[in-house]
Fold this sequence. Notes:
Chain A is α+β, with helices and mostly antiparallel strands.
Amino acid sequence: MRFIWKMAWRETRSSISKLLLFIAAIVMGVAALVSITSFGENLDKAIEDQAKTLLGADLVIDGRMPFDEVALALFDSLGGEQAYEVRFTSMVQFPSNGGTRLGQIRALRGGFPFYGELETIPENAATTFHNSDTAALVDDSMMMQFGIEVGDSIRVGNVTYVIAGRLLSIPGESLAQGLAGPRVFIPESTLDATGLIQRGSQLYFYQYFRFDDDRDVDALVSSIEGKLNELRVDADTVEDRKLALGRALTNLTRFLNLVGFIALLLGGVGIASAVHVYIQRKVNTVAVMRCIGVSTRQAIGIYVVQSMGMGLIGAAIGSALGVGIQRLVPIVLADFLPVDIDFGISWMAIATGFLIGMVITALFALQPLLEVRRISPLLAIRRRFESGGARQPSDPLRWAIYAITAGGILLTSILLTDRIDIGLGFFGAVITAFALLSLIGVGLTRALRKWFPRNSRYVVRQGLANLYRPNNQTLAMVVTLGFSTFLLATLFLSRDMLLTQLDTGFTQNQANFVAFDIQSDQREGLRDLLERDYGLEVRQDVPIVTMRMTHINGVRAEALRDTGDVRIPNWLYQREVRATYREEITDAEKITSGEWIGYFDDFDGLVPISMEEGVAGQMGISLGDEFTFNVQGVPMQTYVASLREVDWQQVQPNFIFTFPAGVLEYAPQFHVFVTRVPDRETGAELQRDMINAFPNISIIDLDLVLGTVDAILSRVSFVIQFMALFSIFTGLIVLTGAVVSSRFQRIQESVLLKTLGAQGKQVLGIMSVEYLVLGLISALTGILLAYGAAWGLSLVVFETTFVPNWITLLALIAGVMGITVAIGLANSRDIYRKSPLAVLRSA
Amino acid sequence: MLNVDQITKVYQSGERSLKVLHDISFSIPQGQMCAIVGPSGSGKTTLLGLCAGLDTPTSGDVYINNRRLTGLSEDQLSALRNELVGFVFQSFQLIPTLTAIENVMVPLELRGERGADKMAAELLTRVGLADRLDHYPAQLSGGEQQRVAIARAFINRPVLMFADEPTGNLDSDTSESIVELLFELNRDAGTTLVMVTHDLELAARTHRVIRLRSGHILSDELTENAPVAQQAAQKPSESTDTNPTAGSQTDDASQTSSAPSAEEETIVDDAPSDSTVSREQTV
Ligand SMILES: Nc1ncnc2c1ncn2[C@@H]1O[C@H](COP(=O)(O)OP(=O)(O)O)[C@@H](O)[C@H]1O
Ligand SMILES: [Mg+2]
């Protein structure tokens, strides 16, 4: 054993820089794991420490209908300090420049948040707001979008407020949450004056509690559970919020960990390739050692110890780097974090990353190390005989090692995700990706060799031939660089695809402008505005009647909810249902079973309605089941006469429940108009005019949707790009390692060429061609796979035809080729500069 | 000491099979220095590899110290080599990542023996490299490398030394000093030597010359250098083997160099010409 250690050290000593470089392949992966795991630990701690500020209160009770006397009496009996909030979406307008946008309005009464603070600029703006009846706080992102300053005014419905401050953060909410609906706080006392609380408004009601008597809030909630259910409201405690947040953030860190793990696996591929080349160089040494009497086991031992030693150093460097990078993670994720993260060193994370790094090194080094067993001592007295057809007997141990490697990766994935199904899925996906990448890589390399023009210039031919030199690491480089390209390309393609899909609304003749919350008495006026002033066609005028679902098949919803026989989703239980009535089905709908009944006016009979098949399936509802609705005080008995499939992607209001014409015409109702504006400018102008004439009407146009999706996507892709960086760096390190380890060979080649009369420029040209082609193959490999992935996504997720953005892809290819050439040449600088004489002397 | 009993070696390359050694038998007693000569491709290296247990014969047996090599596992063979055998190679075969002294120490360290460094330093001093202990092979000349290799071969006090063209990669003067060193160390330690060479002058300085051609033993004779005891011990059956052409060969080494037959000419051609000339001058 001592002998093995001694020999391992002596072997390492002279080539440590070279060895370190290929072990550096795992550094980025380990760094990623350590930083993400540390971040996860710090996040858990932050959630624990800031638990109360997550909710901003000890208890929140929320409902979708105004709290009635029973509810208010219950709140009274609970005591403590209370605050009240009504939340809804509405258009807001900035009179200084006429800008309008759909915002999320929060009408607040009382001292919320009780824990934590509304972070604002200026700092005291929250106090100003609490003490004033005319002040508002507005999301910073929206103020920036419209170029609005503190002190400017904002109009919400019929009321104009002075902006007291920019809202930076709300306890327990992340920045990203405000992207879809920028938040605006207004005093609740002014709510009625806005005139926005009308029929059809979707309102959320919140009652916040703060208890100073240390009571057990969760026990309290359990004790009033029945009452809350009866009131159709929800209670949220700090504990609930912690759990929900923990779950969401676990998913986040799990995802990030897996992306980091990919970098580590790529490093593993680099290590396998490097160890393979290393062992090939050591064949003679091993043969001599075997002659002298070193046993196979000892010989393998020497190289195992070396590899593990290097793995140890790599993992240590990676861990140290990870601790540093950890500081970056909260910055990258800042938009998605509802808590402030403190920086702390987590030994647990360091140990995990370190260990996984070692395991991956061992797994990937094992297989090439096995080649040592095959080195016969005979090779010391004669050079290797290429025995043409003589096949080496298949090696059962090799397969065992493949199995161990696969098992190790699988186990690690399960360990990292803490879930067997996700671990398995990840493992399957990664193995498939690696297999496909290798296949494509091999295919492309072969094709290139076969089809490359033989009469091309010498420099080009030689550069290409270099990719096939003995002991080349072309495939390993193609796989690692290709994988990074694949990650980026898939990301870009998906994003492009999503945006193009949305954008077609403007280019094709689809509806792209929806106005909702239109009251019956506003219909004529709005129609005039659209048709006369703007010359637009109102494509749909959809009536909406709100109602509450009270019974299913004659059983009270409250009772059903208790027994759990029928799964009633929250929205159906707590909220008023929005239903429409019409004679025809729309283009976006298809009857899948039963019979569509367009007209019905027997007020004593069961009304035949149609239900969306997905929701029906989830609830376990089938044809003939009966629903009883309370339509603004009037009970209405219905049965499910048909099930519909709905294409939710079309810009138009869609409904779970539709009624036949004939029964709901006289019920109180409001309307949605669907139209198409020819361009963005017209849309913006129309919005302004509509808000001025009808402040309560909310508008969704495609521009807004596009902008929102883009804003969210760009933040998400920023995070993914950050994680992909680890893989990219790993790819570059593997590339560097491969270039450096083939240095000696390259020097000899280049010297030989120079002695034969080649110019320095030509040698440089040959190398450039080699790296250019390598970059091209890698990029193409990655992009081909990404193309396949994006095509699959387009079928399954986006349900759209896949039109790749060639500019993005070309830019990516150029980028990968550029970086490959840059790294390759940077590491070969002195090679092509060397004079032949100098090298002959030193060799 | 070394017994080779009717070994054949067949190489299978694709469909074709190539019989490289035909029914070779001989035995070498303790302390004898034996040369195996023959033209390139005659099977010398193959034979050496089989004798040292680096490869297994297609049929037949090899015994070292009456231990049968066939049937031993790879690791048992390794242990046996470490214990009994030393090697000197044509291309020196030092481990490039180890210094001279470390290269020499390896066989002893393998056994876990103490004082390896002292012994190695002594041996290196003896081969004239006292001041090069910490140099790497790349920093040594060919002759110096071969001296290190010889020191390495002797450090585990082997009973059997194999040398495959030990002077094949060296110029004549260096060759001469290397051969002197090898023979001297060998005599002092009483080691049995099996040396493959195509240098007939060199072969003539050993005790016994086995000529190989196309995998057959052409002749197997003691030279005038052989101790009397060995000459008496040699049985006639060993010199006249089954080879049909062997009978006519009766000339000894001194005749060979003065009047080469057609047979030997090919052998001489195979060796570097300048070394042959210089050898004639030294004889
Ligand atoms: N592994 C092998 N496969 C096929 N043929 C071989 C192999 N090793 C050696 N040979 C053949 O065996 C013959 C003898 O080779 P070798 O023992 O090296 O001769 P020598 O050392 O006398 O020059 C040669 O013809 C060589 O081509
Ligand atoms: Mg030979």
